[in-house]
Please model this.
Amino acid sequence: MLTILFLAILTAHLPVAQGFQAVSTPSINVSFRHDSGGLPLRSSILEDAPVFTGAIIGTPSETSIELPPLIQSMADERREYEMNLGKAMDVLRKDYPHMLDVTPDFSIYSDDISVVDPSGVQLTGLGNYKTSFSFLQTMIGFFYNMEQSSVQNRMMYDFARQTIRISWNVVLVPKVVGNRRNALYVDGISIYKMDTKTGKIGEHRVENMLINDIPVTPPYGVLTALKNEILYPSGQRVPVGVGAM
Model:
């Protein structure tokens, strides 16, 4: 009795229940198709969901990420700078052992390069730089035996100052009475600074230069000091070695 009364009340207050029909729930069919790499490529859980039918290719390292224009420009400039720096260091490493008698590769230098020696004498322009090299090699070749003379060097990159530093030691053996006892010893440190605009070396500065353990001081420049030592030798021959500080 109570059950029939309850059903009657429920029918009166719930019109939605009138004509209620069972809704058939579609069966959920879940299927996966795997490629050769075992990655799931498709799911049919939802009929209207977009289906991925492509293939996953490449590795995370091969995925290219598009950067904002400003950051991309900075990244490109940095990459180009590192490439030019690597080329400059390779050329210097190749040229230094033969610096006394072989013309170096001037393609790594800027047209308006400035050269400063310990005495403060400054040289500007690639043309003047080439002329000074030619004059120095001619003078050395005239007085010294190139087969017995030698150049040693040690290269490093200064990350803090972004410069290439080369400590070098030159031993010049004279043609007359040529032996190590009468040799001329020249030591110094060359500092090369890259020009970020041209990607080439824009400055070559020579520091801590010693000729027979005697510092080169003003007002004499490198060429003048060498000429004086060649024409009027001091008689003192003191080797210092690579990395003289």
